[in-house]
Design a protein that fits this description.
- This protein is α/β, with parallel strands linked by helices.
- The protein folds into four domains: 15-72, Cytochrome C Oxidase, Chain J, CATH 4.10.91.20; 85-373, Catalase HpII,  Chain A, domain 1 (Beta Barrel), CATH 2.40.180.10; 455-557, Up-down Bundle (Hemocyanin, N-terminal domain); 561-721, 3-Layer(aba) Sandwich (Rossmann fold), CATH 3.40.50.880.
- The chain has 18 helices and 18 strands.
- Strands 1, 2, 3, 4, 5, 6, 7, 8, 9 and 10 form a ten-stranded antiparallel beta sheet that branches. The protein has a six-stranded parallel beta sheet with strand order 15-12-11-16-17-18, sandwiched between helices. The protein has a two-stranded antiparallel ribbon with strand order 13-14.
- Helix 3 packs across helix 11 (489-502).
- The N and C termini lie far apart (57 Å).
- Bound molecules: CIS-heme D hydroxychlorin gamma-spirolactone 17R, 18S.
- CIS-heme D hydroxychlorin gamma-spirolactone 17R, 18S is lined by residues 79-82, 85, 119, 121, 138, 140, 153-155, 160, 165, 168, 228, 343-345, 361, 364-365, 368-369, 372.
- CIS-heme D hydroxychlorin gamma-spirolactone 17R, 18S (HDE) binds next to strand 2, strand 3, strand 4 and helix 8.
């Protein structure tokens, strides 16, 4: 198909090839016959062509050969990093014109609705690994703008492990499964990762993020996104400002517990993928606001850190995040391979008005992304795959290559030319032509790390100090877990030395769990990533005491907690349940936007007290509390007696309690709660205040219960409960 025509629907098939909705499958057309790839209708797709009824298969069978050959070639190399991911289509709408700082048209005109494709991912695991690995999450957005594609290829953490792209292969080799035995899958808790990290103090800040709850998102829909590097905006007058990009989820930023994450990995490794898919299918479209921190060029050197250093963030207290537009994901892909797997993002895909800085991590990425697509997507024409095509026409003299789709016409494929009347021609800046920002560069060619990059600990410390007590405990637990899996004791000790430079109390707590002392002097040289001829002293980490001790925006505890929208609530019930009370609570929760699923000892339905049937979504065999945000035990004496005696129901509650979730019970089902480990510690009063601090609601009035339960669920988690750690679930 020619690319000369604008294509308003990225990733979709051309209209004339579209099928119509019919039957169970989303798109099956009437009178559609099976054909070969060459269009010949197939009469028998069940049997190979053989010499007689019990005879050998014949080479002549072009139908069999074509089918098997295509199958043999169905796989392409998975992404070398970010292999496991999930994508969705959507739109971006601008709130206010940003023309004063950028000439990018999609950031100037509030009337424009820009189509987008977003792919979320984990980093280390392979394609078939679990969604709930402790890992960074990719957050890659392709804007199909009217000036060409702009890809914002970011992560859910605002900093990175390394400062220079040349260390990326080392970092990834260290974190991927170890090369001799390919163990462990999708995990950083092993020797090679911590060996590398313990020798690279520049990773300290990012390690704090990766060990925090940010690495265990409750949902892709509940994570922030960051462009990480400092970019440039350039306006129509050619004036440039630095810019940091943010995505702020409207559902807030939320995480699961580590014990829960590990269990989800077994119960539903597709947890995030399914969550994204189901939210979009049910019309609960995920939304983020695009935020920008704008820094005038004149302020480049006003910070205690270097804006070109990707291991540093710009605290929101110093430069507020301006929310300038909204991203809404509103359409699931039709085909995972064609769209999500073949999507090719590239940090170098920018449009006029957006430009790069000299961040050495960013600069290296500019090379990597096209290079990787050449091998992964098999040649130079991957931009012609529907998901990667811009919505504007493409005209240039690039020609041929594997899998070329465009049929270029005419004789001229060079510039300048007269035979093609000079077309395609260059665009002036006023006509929308891209011109690089003419940054002045007057320098020697060197390999060296700027001294302004050498403070590796002050922001790591600021991050730790910005966390709430439960969040800090989780970081201690995560480090104790990860280093506990490390076999080489020298690596553990070296890491404790690094942690002591971030925050002595953190190192002390991890050391207590590992039962080894914090070394009095960290192993030197601290930084072992230095050039062969360098003096280690020149690469010493020089801590610049940060004037900002903590930043509220860094703690997830400060995220909005005012809604239960899209949260999944398990209703436990058995035959004899009080159907009316159940329906009252269900309707109230659903009216507040939650998704309610009834879970019972057996599938299909339960019979209520009044003999009505209540549909059941899952049985205890197929469901698990880790897949839900909160639990309600429905009333009715007979139902309660059954649940009390059902070990799976009691376990369900114990586990929900252990993972600090809101739990509610009809007063007539008290005996079920009493059968749990936490049954003896139920709060005496049921005031609104206790509900908000304890997250336990017991009430005989269904309407009142629903009201209190909604407030409790909105809190997400009651992390204080973890303190005593007495629930064996
Ligand atoms: Fe990437 N990265 N990266 N990266 N990255 C890739 O490109 C690379 C970095 C990020 O959903 C690869 O198409 C280098 C930072 C995301 O398809 C590859 C360096 C950030 C995705 C690559 C970095 C990212 C990738 C692998 C160090 C956050 C998934 C497959 C200089 C700002 C995009 C591919 C998707 C994917 C290289 C560091 C984000 C090999 C060399 C920092 C979200 O090109």
């Amino acid at each position: 198909m020619s690319k000369d025509e604008p294509q308003p629907n990225p990733g979709q098939q051309p209209e004339n090839e579209k099928t119509t909705a019919l039957g169970r499958d989303k798109e099956v057309s009437a009178n559609q016959f099976l054909t070969t790839n060459h269009g010949v209708k197939i009469n028998d797709d069940q049997n190979s062509l053989t010499a007689g009824e019990r005879g050998a298969s014949l080479l002549e069978d072009f139908i069999l050969r074509e089918k098997i050959t295509h199958f043999d070639h169905e796989r392409i190399p998975e992404r070398v990093v970010h292999a496991r991911g999930s994508g969705a289509h959507g739109v971006f709408k601008l709130y206010e014109s940003m023309a004063s700082v950028t000439r990018a048209q999609f950031l100037n005109d509030t009337e424009i609705e820009t189509p987008v494709f977003v792919r979320f991912s984990t980093v280390a695991g392979s394609r078939g690994s679990t969604d709930l690995a402790r890992d960074v999450r990719g957050f890659a957005v392709k804007f199909y703008t009217q000036e060409g594609n702009f890809d914002l290829v970011g992560n859910n953490m605002p900093v990175f492990f390394i400062q220079d792209a040349i260390k990326f292969p080392d970092l990834i080799h260290a974190v991927k499964p170890e090369p001799d035995n390919e163990i462990p899958q999708a995990a950083s808790a092993h020797d090679t990762f911590w060996d590398f990290i313990s020798l690279m103090p520049e990773s300290a800040h990012m390690v704090m993020w990766a060990m925090s709850d940010r690495a265990l998102p409750r949902s892709y829909r509940m994570m922030e996104g960051f462009g990480v590097h400092t970019f440039r905006f350039v306006n129509a007058e050619g004036v440039s400002n630095f810019v940091k990009f943010h995505w702020k989820p409207l559902l807030g930023v939320h995480a699961v517990a580590w014990d829960e994450a590990q269990k989800i990995s077994g119960k539903d490794p597709d947890f995030h993928r399914r969550d994204l898919w189901e939210a979009i299918e049910s019309g609960n479209f995920p939304e983020w606001e695009l935020g920008v921190q704008i820094i005038p060029e004149a302020d480049e050197f006003k910070f205690e850190f270097d804006l070109l250093d990707s291991t540093k963030l710009v605290p929101e207290e110093l430069v507020p995040v301006q929310r300038i537009g909204k991203l809404t994901l509103n359409r699931n892909p039709d085909n995972f391979f064609a769209e999500t797997e073949q999507a090719a993002f590239h940090i170098g895909h920018v449009v006029p008005g957006i430009d790069f800085t000299n961040d050495p991590l960013l600069q290296g990425r500019l090379f990597s992304y096209t290079d990787t697509q050449l091998i992964r997507l098999g040649g130079p024409n991957f931009h012609e795959i529907p998901i990667n095509r811009p919505i504007v026409p493409v005209h240039n003299n690039q020609r041929d290559g594997f899998m070329r789709q465009t049929i270029n016409k005419g004789r001229s494929s060079y510039n300048p030319n007269t035979i093609g009347a000079g077309y395609p021609m260059q665009a002036k800046i006023a006509e929308g032509g891209f011109a690089s920002y003419p940054e002045r560069i007057d320098a020697r060619k060197i390999r060296a790390r700027s001294k302004s990059f050498l403070d590796h600990f002050s922001q790591a410390k600021m991050f730790f100090n910005s966390q709430s007590v439960p969040e800090q405990t989780h970081i201690v637990d995560a480090l104790s877990f990860e280093l506990g899996k490390v076999q080489d004791l020298d690596i553990r000790k070296r890491m404790l030395g690094i942690l002591s430079l971030i925050e002595p109390s953190l190192a002390a707590q991890v050391a207590f769990n590992l039962r080894i002392p914090v070394p009095s002097d960290p192993a030197l040289p601290l930084n072992q990533s230095i050039p062969a001829d360098a003096d280690p002293a020149d690469y010493d980490s020089t801590m610049v005491e940060s004037s900002l001790k903590s930043s509220g925006a860094l703690s997830m505890a400060n995220t909005p907690k005012d809604s239960i929208k899209t949260r999944k609530i398990a209703f436990l019930a058995a035959d004899g349940v009080d159907g009316n009370a159940l329906k009252t609570v269900k309707s109230a929760l659903e009216a507040a936007g939650a998704v309610v699923e009834v879970i019972a000892p057996r599938q299909s339905f339960v019979i209520a007290e009044d003999d009505s049937e209540i549909p059941v979504k899952q049985s205890f065999l197929t469901a698990a509390s880790v897949l839900y945000d909160a639990v309600y035990v429905a009333g009715g004496a007979v139902s309660a007696a059954t649940l009390e005696a059902d070990a799976d129901a009691v376990h369900f509650l114990n586990e929900a309690f252990r993972h600090c979730k809101a739990i509610a019970a009809d007063a007539s089902a008290m005996q079920v709660l009493e059968a749990t480990y936490f049954g003896k510690k139920l709060p005496a009063d049921q005031s609104d205040e206790s509900v908000l601090t304890e997250g336990l609601v017991i009430n005989s009035d269904a309407s009142q219960l629903a009201e209190q339960f909604i407030k409790a669920i909105a809190q997400h988690r009651f992390w204080e409960r973890e303190r005593p750690r007495r629930i064996p679930a």
